[in-house]
């Protein structure tokens, strides 16, 4: 069950302020890293909502992100629609797509759920890959960014765009926290803990799962639209199952079911990847080993382990007082 | 080439691809069915087989690689088993998926470090290097060898599983692990043997595939998903399911690429989704 503890709030604020400070000091390349980290963090956050709090391990979140990115790209680059309208429609589209995938996949469990989401994600990938109108293998260029000249923000510059990414990441976190604290979020936790019992209580389990998946698709959609605007280019690789796997890896490295953990994981991954890449091309090797060690060490992840140590120390101190 | 000749060639291609998928998925499905272990690194072991065969055959010729690569892959499999998989035997699926996903990362980069980031090739053995005429069409002899080998292994596995004591123990373990253990079967040891065999078969698939496809660090990724689809469609732990699943996926991919390239991949995934939702246990569930 989700609680926005003081520890979570403090960590979140430090992370967001740190990213903001890096935008100011890190130069152009630093801003690119911040944008990349924010987009990955939003995707990981959306994975954590379903995986950490709903027990649904998804292998289709890359496809959800990619679908929103492609929808946005098609509307701005092909149809010439205004980016703001396209933004909304793209997110609605990924939400509906995720709800549908969640509704159908909710009939399966465990490893079969993973396989089902993989199948649907790959179907979206193949569909977009094979659509010549969308550029197929080559992808699609000429994606427009939002025009915020009216409020005096030049969105074509990297600093305002990076700040917008940080703001959207904060917004995504807020939405996810509100959802998980609501009655619906508690029901979702219940479904994760004991599906049969919730069903016996009269809860329509498949509909809870579908809606949670839809909400997750909304967050993945925001990440997708920002990804499309960032490079102003979309390619089918965005939808591949390996991106979904990478998002899951980020969640695990940061801490599954902690909501702050995915942010920690994404920021750590992007910056460590950048550091390792300057030494060796083989950074996947390190990520792979880190992943295996994390799971073998109990699977709490960076933030999860931190939270575990802090709460244990606090509990021990409380016991000593008593 | 005449029209019927074209379809005969495509059929042979389909059979060959199906049997390759069979070699890969049969180990995966029994590991899956016997111990509910999800080994995503199976594709990486296949790639390892191909790489080892490339190196060994440079010294000992094709047949040296053919014999040694499955052994080498099985040895690596034993190492993985003792180091990681034994500990994850009773962990939940997610941890198994994650650790073996991590192994894919590790293996892919190790291939890059060891053999470079380039496409390697392997010459088929001189014995099978030419072309043969079958059913009135000219077809590469090596691919006929792949078909024959696949059929022989399929028959051998069917015999072992249905006619020997080991086979009965494996089937008992798949059907009901606890009951089999109560009857005095050392399920852990049976699993260990099956796991090694599955690794060796993945390695063998790698050697056999090396002359047909190019050997690249990512070659394991490209077969992992079809192999998983075969396993799920056929039903976990079921030999018959692996056969039927392999042929379904192999033929859909081969003929789909010819008839409707846009639809081929789509149909495979749609089939997977349909089976998962309508018959979650697969077409031929091993467990009654």
Write down the overall geometry of chain B.
globular
Radius of gyration of chain A: 20 Å
Distance between the termini of chain B: 48 Å
- Spans where pLDDT lies below 50 across 5 or more residues of chain A: none
The whole-number mean of residue pLDDT values of chain B reads: 88
N to C succession of SSEs of chain B:
HHHHEEHHHHHHH
* Low-pLDDT residue intervals, each spanning 5 or more residues of chain B: none
Query: What is the count of structural domains of chain A?
Result: 1
Q: How many H/I helices of chain B?
A: 11
- What is the typical, i.e. mean, pLDDT of chain A? 91
Oligomer: heterodimer
Main beta sheet of chain B: strand number and arrangement? Answer: 2 strands, antiparallel
Percentage beta strand of chain A:
under 5%
Q: How much helix, percentage-wise, in residues of chain A? A: over 70%
Over all CA atoms, what is the radius of gyration of chain B?
Answer: 19 Å
What percentage of the residues of chain B does DSSP assign to strands (E)?
Answer: under 5%
Question: Any overview of this molecule?
Answer:
- The complex is a heterodimer of chains A (322) and B (288).
- By secondary structure, chain A is mainly alpha-helical.
- Chain A has one domain (6-239).
- Chain A is built from 13 helices and 2 strands.
- In chain A, helix 3 packs parallel to helix 5 and helix 10 runs parallel beside helix 13 (301-321).
- The radius of gyration of chain A is 20 Å and the shape is globular.
- Chain B has 288 residues and is mostly helical.
- Chain B has a domain at 19-216.
- Helices cover 76% and strands 3% of the residues of chain B.
- Chain B has helices at 3-35, 42-60, 62-88, 93-115, 141-163, 165-175, 177-182, 187-209, 219-234, 239-259, 261-278; strands at residues 131-134, 137-140.
- The longest helix of chain B is centred in the first third of the chain and has 33 residues, at 3-35.
- The model of chain B has no long low-confidence stretch (mean pLDDT 88).
């Amino acid at each position: 069950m989700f609680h926005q503890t003081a520890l979570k709030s403090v960590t979140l604020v430090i992370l967001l302020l740190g990213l903001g400070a890096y935008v100011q000091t890190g130069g152009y390349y630093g801003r690119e890293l911040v944008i990349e980290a924010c987009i990955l963090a939003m995707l990981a956050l959306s994975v954590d909502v379903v995986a950490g709090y709903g027990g649904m391990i998804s292998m289709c979140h890359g496809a959800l992100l990619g679908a929103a990115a492609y929808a946005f790209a098609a509307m701005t680059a092909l149809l010439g629609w205004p980016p703001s309208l396209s933004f909304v429609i793209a997110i609605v589209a990924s939400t509906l797509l995720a709800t549908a995938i969640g509704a159908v996949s909710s009939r399966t469990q465990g490893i079969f759920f993973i396989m089902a989401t993989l199948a649907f994600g790959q179907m979206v990938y193949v569909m977009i890959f094979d659509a010549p109108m969308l550029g197929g293998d080559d992808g699609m260029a000429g994606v427009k960014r939002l025009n915020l000249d009216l409020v005096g923000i030049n969105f074509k510059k990297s600093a305002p765009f990076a700040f917008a990414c940080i703001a959207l990441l904060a917004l995504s976190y807020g939405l996810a926290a509100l959802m998980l604290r609501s009655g619906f979020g508690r029901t979702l936790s219940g479904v994760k803990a004991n599906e049969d019992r919730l069903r016996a209580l009269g809860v329509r389990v498949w509909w809870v799962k579908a809606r949670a998946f839809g909400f997750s698709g909304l967050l993945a959609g925001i990440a997708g639209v920002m990804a499309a605007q960032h490079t102003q280019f979309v390619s089918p690789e965005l939808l591949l199952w390996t991106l979904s796997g990478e998002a899951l890896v980020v969640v695990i490295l940061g801490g599954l079911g902690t909501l702050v953990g995915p942010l920690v994981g994404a920021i750590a991954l992007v910056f460590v990847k950048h550091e390792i890449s300057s030494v060796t091309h083989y950074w996947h090797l390190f990520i792979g080993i880190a992943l295996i060690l994390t799971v073998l060490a109990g699977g709490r992840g960076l933030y999860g382990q931190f939270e575990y140590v802090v709460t244990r120390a606090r509990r021990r101190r409380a016991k000593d007082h008593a | 080439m005449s029209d019927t000749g074209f379809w005969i060639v495509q059929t042979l291609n389909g059979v060959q691809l199906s049997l390759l998928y069979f070699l890969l998925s049969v180990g995966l499905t029994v590991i899956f069915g016997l111990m509910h272990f999800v080994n995503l690194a199976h594709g990486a072991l296949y790639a390892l087989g191909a790489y080892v065969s490339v190196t060994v055959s440079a010294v000992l010729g094709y047949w040296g690689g053919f014999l040694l690569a499955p052994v080498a892959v099985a040895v690596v499999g034993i190492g993985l088993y003792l180091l990681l998989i034994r500990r994850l035997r009773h962990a939940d699926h997610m941890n198994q998926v994650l650790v073996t996903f991590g192994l894919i990362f590790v293996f892919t980069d190790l291939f890059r470090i060891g053999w470079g980031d380039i496409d390697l090739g392997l010459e088929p053995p001189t014995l099978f290097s030419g072309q043969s005429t079958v059913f009135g069409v000219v077809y590469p002899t090596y691919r006929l060898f792949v078909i024959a080998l696949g059929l022989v292994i399929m028959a051998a596995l069917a015999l072992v599983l249905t006619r020997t004591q080991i086979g009965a123990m494996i089937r008992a373990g798949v059907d009901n692990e606890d009951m089999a253990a109560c009857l005095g079967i050392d399920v852990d040891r049976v699993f260990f043997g099956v796991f090694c065999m599955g690794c060796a078969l993945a390695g063998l698939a790698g050697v056999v595939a090396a002359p047909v496809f190019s050997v690249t660090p990512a070659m394991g990724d490209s077969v992992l998903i079809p192999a998983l689809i075969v396993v799920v469609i056929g039903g976990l732990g079921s030999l018959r399911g692996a056969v039927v699943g392999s042929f379904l996926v192999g033929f859909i991919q081969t003929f789909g690429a010819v008839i409707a390239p846009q639809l081929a991949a789509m149909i495979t995934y749609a089939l997977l989704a349909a089976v998962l939702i309508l018959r979650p246990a697969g077409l031929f569930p091993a467990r009654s």
